[in-house]
Amino acid sequence: MSPVESVPIAILNHIDEYVELLYDDIPEKIKGSALILQLARNPENLIELARNEALLSALSRVLREEWKRSIELSTNIVYTFFCFSTYIEFHSVIIQYKIGSLCMDVIDYELKRYDQWKEKVDGKKTALTPDKNEIPKSRIPEPKRRPKSGTWAVADVNLQKARSLVSSYHEDLCNASDELLSKNDEEQLKRKLKALSKRQEQLLRVAFYMLLNIADNVKVEEKMHKKDIVGLLIGAMERHSNIDLLILIVSFLQKLSIFIENKTSMGTKGIIEKLAPLLDSPNPDLVNVTLKLLFNLTFDTKLRNKMIKLNMLPKFIQFTSDDKQITLAMKILYHLSMDDRVKVLFTQSDCVKLLTDMLLLNVNSDMSGEAGPGTTDVLLALCVNLAWNERAAQQMTSEGRLREILARAFRHRNAMLMKLVRNLSHHGQNKLLFVEFVGDLSGAITSGEAPEEFVIECLGTLSNILNPNNNIDVFAVVERYNLIPYIMKVLDPGEKCDGEVVLAGVVLAGAICVEERCASALAGAGGGHALVASLRHRQADDEHVLQTVFAFRQMLSHPRAAEHLVANTEAPAYLIDLMQDKNVEIRKMCDSCLDIISQMQNEWATRIKVERFRCHNGQWLSVVETLGAEGGAGDAADDLPPYLSAEYLTTHRLTTSDSQASLNDDTDSFSGEDYNRANSRNTQDGQSDDLGMSDSLSGKTLDDDAQFSKNLNVFA
Question: Basic and acidic residues: which segments have biased composition (predicted)?
């Protein structure tokens, strides 16, 4: 029965009388708060009630001082403020009297008290007791007034009688002794616990609802976070009997989960373990709001992994057959599919085949309702992710599904569906299935009728499958569909094609150069110059640079094309410049290209040798250059140049480990100009004279030579 159904109809003009009841005993306070609640439930009265400061002060004071004594009284007052919270104009009233903070304290106490009741009924020792310290009372002074009749002593006696009459189930439960309880007493306590739990859930529901309304203010929500609102909500989720309360709690958590601090707090408090059982609920609204919260949480990698550990993936897949839950289920599955380890789990059932069939049925279909075009887009994105897994790609293309996918892609010119086809073509086991569609792909590229996004995906797909190993005559395809003129047009900076189209053209150029005739034809048509010009304009894009260098590598694999590329273009110079690129893959590809060029009979071989030496010893050469700039005039004539020229490398043999014997020879180490230069420096410094130096050299013994060689070996 509602708290307001047992009281007479309230009248706004009698509001002062209802306020006076708040200063009487508990029964009168309950009656007065119920009458005020009646007025507050009518939106037309809220403005008048908000102007009555005496009313608001009395309500906040009674709630602050008496909420522990009566759940019904607390529910009436919180419900009254909830009516104010439904309109944002009255949120300032709730904030002014600090009702939100007080409600959180009430919720915390009630949750702890419920745990104590439950432990009493279950016969367990009380491990958790509510904090006995009262919440600080309101600083608003309570106006004293004399009783309507009699003296103060009589009023005190009446107050004591009223308190003794207002018994609570809580006292019965807390005073019960586990040792003295009979079966009848236990059954009675269980009934009382059920009744108290029902009343308490009403209070929790209206309190949480009020907090949810005022949480629209970000600053208020931050204060709630500091008081651990997430912990209170998760603590109240154990009450599975009250579906309405659960829906409210999960909705509140969903709103809070958009902030990373709240999401982190939910993760540490085991939110996923709490939500997993709710997916089995027969209530579709509860399942829907639970999926919404889980979708927000799937943006966190750790929480996604926890969902997988709890084996929630089959449940999400099951919801794809529910028209009401399919959109949320698809979004969650899409987020889960971003992890490569999870992609494999999709293949352990018929899920991939079912998703592919569902996609084929709904592509570009006019579906209405919640499972509309948005659902199809998410489903398509999910399939695109799964197509990266080899086993999933095999299931998608089995039983003639690839033909159906391609037919729908070309019929609707759907770029996303073509992206799915492109991902499927990455796997070697599927390449042979694309042979019969090479003509369709090439025609769509060169026809100029398809959208640009669709052409990009066709270029990528064709680049994946154009290979002689796939029983494809690459040169015949290139000649028939004029792919080389198309590539030259795309690479021309004057055409101002989109960067993605240019990159796809470079990839296609590298793909067709796997065949010698295609590589020669591309080089003869000026493909080398076009690739260099494209590289010059897009040298900041690492992916473009890498694909261009790969195209050079493919052309260098064939003698005629390699000779044309090296002799007539600036490709070798760019490759030498890219030897020191920050990208490791680019450096590796450049080294492979330069290895081929250095083996050819041309002037680049010597330059590559010098530049590689300088690249390998760059730090040492920089030190030499610094010393050369700061050195004296007397040493300049005899020092080496800051870098070694090609002539020096060809006429001088660098010392290696094989020439260790020459280092042990004293005549080679200290003779000629080296000895004279050292001797002159020592003489100028006044450290020794010519006689002393010559004596030190001539006075060496065999033991000294042996010791010198030993030390040199150790140093080496």
Answer: 128-144
